[in-house]
Inverse folding.
């Protein structure tokens, strides 16, 4: 089955710790994205990558880092510099690199800072 | 800058009836796309329907149709024959310059039996 997988589904972190969220796709899509969703709100773009070994900051990149070493994988690290990391994180991918290309989403990771 | 506005925070609809979800947008780009996504309580975002700015006809996808009024900058979603499984959050989004999607704040739909 083709799709996007995210792990873990739930993640708990102590203050001051870095954590890495996994995102893998087997759709052979070029572009991948990370979004953050806070309760009762829409999605905000953290980082995106249009091609391997290249990525760009989105609207709320501070306190986050990413890598794109393989086409299928786009992990997100939430660093201790992120002041309010408790949120729902969604990964997406699209076949093309245009903003008019449909983005398909993974099931999400819910991060809670204890 | 792109902006998406969904003015209905929540609405009830009777099962088997149609419901219209409002979405207005603002962009200076001549080429853009409008998307609707469904987010059930499980959290995943499910793509429903797409409308390109140059498309002459309104998009349809099964029970979903998009009422695209370019001059008014609106892209309302119509769900016909509502089902209990349609209860969810619905998000309108726009893709324009810069390879980014901008999302609205969402509308919660509750279908009553």
């Amino acid at each position: 089955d083709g799709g996007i997988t995210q792990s873990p589904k739930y993640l708990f972190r102590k203050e001051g710790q870095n954590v890495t969220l996994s995102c893998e796709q087997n759709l052979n899509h070029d572009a991948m994205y990370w979004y953050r969703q806070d309760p009762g709100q829409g999605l905000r773009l953290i980082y995106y990558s249009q091609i391997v070994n290249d990525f760009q900051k989105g609207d709320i990149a501070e306190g986050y880092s990413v890598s794109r070493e393989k086409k299928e994988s786009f992990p997100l690290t939430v660093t201790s510099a992120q002041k309010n990391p408790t949120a729902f994180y969604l990964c997406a991918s699209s076949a093309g690199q245009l903003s008019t290309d449909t983005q398909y989403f993974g099931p999400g990771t819910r991060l809670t800072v204890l | 800058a792109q902006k998406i506005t969904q003015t209905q925070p929540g609405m009830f609809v009777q099962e088997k009836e149609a419901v219209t979800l409002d979405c207005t947008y603002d962009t200076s780009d001549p080429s853009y796309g409008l998307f609707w996504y469904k987010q059930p309580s499980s959290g995943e975002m499910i793509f429903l329907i797409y409308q390109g700015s140059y498309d002459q006809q309104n998009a349809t996808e099964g029970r979903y149709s998009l009422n695209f009024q370019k001059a008014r900058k609106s892209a309302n979603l119509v769900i016909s024959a509502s089902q209990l499984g349609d209860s969810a959050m619905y998000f309108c989004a726009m893709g324009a310059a810069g390879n980014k999607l901008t999302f609205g704040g969402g509308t919660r739909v509750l279908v009553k039996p």
About this structure: Residues 42 and 99 of chain B are 27 Å apart (CA to CA). Chain B has a mean pLDDT of 94. DSSP finds no helices and twelve strands in chain B.
